[in-house]
DNA sequence: TTGAATTGAGAACGAACGTTCTCTATATTG
DNA sequence: CAATATAGAGAACGTTCGTTCTCAATTCAA
């Protein structure tokens, strides 16, 4: 078993445990057992728990962005691409393991004491907002639309997590339709 | 110093510390020192840390709901009342101590392992949604408007917390205007 | 095959936590 | 005033955590 394989098994296992129970609730020994590695090997691959946390955040970011992008690319029109964001959320909220956005959660848990966690959460959200911004621009919408849709998506995530239901995705999607159509009317008027 | 005074000083101090550093990052001894009580007195007033956490959540709920209601009542029209929600958020986000919604944060930190924390967060959000629902109904809007505005408000909270900026309140407010006006047009058409 | 390096299993360490206990000093009450 | 209850200060306890260490087993090189 090569080092990269071990590393990714550790990070994948940590991701699942941290998501299910919270980061602080999962000790190194529990992670060691679940990932089927020795403690020695664990510390050989990662110098500390916080470095595992950062690796988990990076994994989450890549996986989330890739999943979103796949759903968006499958949509036809620029307007449908914007709405595909909320279809992705609906799919995500329906998973049994869904327990809210991992970045919001890690920010809430560690952000106050760990500048690197806070910073990474900020960058993740910023990257999402830029992504939405690109989609909105491609749809010909004015710049104010992107933050509005981003806020809707954020709100759907926390609402679904706390309520334990996925209906927020559909509600946010219908709100997004209204906002998009209003913004496109404005955008077209402004461009004319 | 009577017991209720001591209790509320403990809860108030705990609220501040938990908000600033996270619940798990604040030990009982730190709380004892900050609240200027003896450890004996602390455990005389509260049987455990988790009972203090629940008392803090209750305090947060009351204070948040009262602050929101005051802002809403100051608004004139039903439409302005709905928008006052976002003015309240703007004011809140601007406070130095703002570090996100305490219920989202405690849910993220403890919700997975503590059913009572998860349940209390759920009830707090539910009560907010009902409050928005009452305002929306008074404005003559169809029932789908309330969840849309609630989701916007939730999203503004996490966005402002993670980005460390209060601009999400204004962005959410402008989105709310669009949603409210669209819903009122629909509502009037439906009622006619 | 023999010697050196690496591994796994888990004991051990030091710190921190929530909680309880001890002891002394101060109030309270008859 | 004397006897008793109560308070504060903080030591102590048992656990858990992140991290390191020990040591026997195994792998690999020559």
Report on the structure:
2 copies of one chain form a homodimer. The first copy, chain A, contains 9 helices and no strands. Chain A starts with a helix and ends with a helix. The model of chain A has no long low-confidence stretch (mean pLDDT 96). The first copy, chain A, has 2 domains: 1-47, Homeodomain-like (Arc Repressor Mutant, subunit A), CATH 1.10.10; 53-191, Tetracycline Repressor, domain 2 (Orthogonal Bundle), CATH 1.10.357.10. Chain A is 79% helix and 0% strand. Chains A and B meet through helix 6, helix 7, helix 8 and helix 9 of A and helix 6, helix 7, helix 8 and helix 9 of B. Chain B binds a DNA duplex (30 and 30 nucleotides) through residues 24, 27-29, 37-41, 43-44, 48-49.
Compose a concise summary of this entry.
Chain A has 192 residues and is mostly helical.
Note the gap between the termini of chain A: 62 Å
**CATH architecture term of the largest domain in chain A:** Orthogonal Bundle
Q: Biggest interface and its residues per chain?
A: A-B, 50 and 50 residues
Rg measurement of chain A, Å? 19 Å
Structural class of chain A: mainly alpha
Largest sheet of chain A: none
Order of helices and strands of chain A: HHHHHHHHH
In round numbers, the mean pLDDT of chain A is 96
Coarse morphology of chain A:
elongated
How many beta-strand segments of chain A? Answer: 0
Parts with pLDDT < 50 across at least 5 consecutive residues of chain A: none
Work out the oligomeric state of the chains in this entry.
Answer: homodimer
- Domain count of chain A: 2
User: Considering the protein shown, what is the CATH homologous superfamily of the largest domain in chain A?
Assistant: Tetracycline Repressor, domain 2
């Amino acid at each position: 078993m090569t080092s990269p394989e071990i590393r990714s098994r550790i990070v994948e296992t940590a991701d699942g445990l941290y998501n299910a129970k919270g980061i602080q609730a999962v000790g190194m020994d529990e992670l060691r057992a679940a990932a089927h590695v020795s403690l020695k090997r664990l510390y050989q691959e990662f110098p500390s728990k916080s470095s595992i946390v950062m690796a988990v955040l990076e994994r989450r970011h890549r996986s989330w962005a890739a999943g979103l992008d796949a759903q968006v690319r499958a949509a036809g029109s620029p307007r449908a691409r914007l709405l595909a964001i909320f279809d992705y959320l609906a799919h995500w909220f329906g998973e049994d393991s869904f327990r809210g956005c991992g970045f919001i959660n890690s920010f809430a848990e560690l952000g106050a004491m760990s500048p690197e966690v806070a910073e990474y959460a900020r960058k993740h959200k910023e990257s999402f907002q830029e992504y939405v911004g690109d989609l909105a621009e491609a749809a010909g919408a004015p710049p104010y639309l992107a933050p509005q849709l981003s806020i809707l998506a954020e709100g759907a995530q926390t609402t679904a997590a706390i309520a334990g239901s996925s209906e927020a995705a559909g509600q946010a999607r219908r709100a997004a339709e209204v906002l998009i159509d209003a913004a496109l009317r404005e955008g077209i008027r402004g461009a004319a």
